[in-house]
Amino acid sequence: MSALAGFRRLPVRGGGGAMPRKVRAAGPEAESWRRAPAVTAFVVFQGKGAGKGPAEPGAAAGPVAAAGDGCVRVAVRAKPGARSSAVTDVTAEAVGIAIAAPPSDGEANAELCRYLSKVLEVKKSEVTLEKGGKSREKVVKIVVSMTPDEVLEKLKKEASS
């Protein structure tokens, strides 16, 4: 089903109901009945930012992007409840981070910000959770004087160690 991510299943008129519709066959088998196949259409629903490139010419494509206000945004796939906090993987979509805190009462979010501040060597107050407070897919905003490529390089270095 992961190949159909981003698609919404919609029934097509005339098929796929609770009871299959019987259709009379043409030709020599006119007396026999057969079932009409259920037809399903998949429609792509794109969000507001779908199909657009990076917001700025200098913005990096991938999990780390430059924000317009001198900040860097990092797309994070959080994995709470781990034994220790660590960068697990860096993909084109997000940075996977195992978090050593349970996903309750915002503990994992606080630990995520604390851990990223340690890895990127910035103050804790410069790392804030921008989106995804109750989701595993998060966006973290970092006030930093580094470029997105430098931030990505530090995250990749942490993932390999």
Tell me what you see in this structure:
There is one protein chain. This protein is α+β, with helices and mostly antiparallel strands and 161 residues long. It has helices at residues 107-120, 148-160; strands spanning 7-11, 22-24, 33-35, 40-44, 64-66, 71-80, 86-90, 95-99, 127-131, 137-143. The strands form 3 sheets. Strands 5, 6, 7, 8, 9 and 10 form a 6-stranded mixed sheet that branches. Strand 5 (64-66) and strand 6 (71-80) form a beta hairpin. The longest helix has 14 residues, at 107-120. The protein starts with 6 loop residues before the first strand and ends with a helix. Residues 39-47 and 49-59 have low confidence and may be disordered.
Short description:
This protein has 161 residues and is of the alpha+beta class. It is built from two helices and ten strands; from the N terminus they run E-E-E-E-E-E-E-E-H-E-E-H. It is globular.
For the residues shown, what is the average pLDDT? 77
Q: Work out the helicity level.
A: 10-25%
- Describe the largest sheet: 6 strands, mixed
Helix/strand-derived class? alpha+beta
Q: In whole angstroms, how far apart are the ends?
A: 33 Å
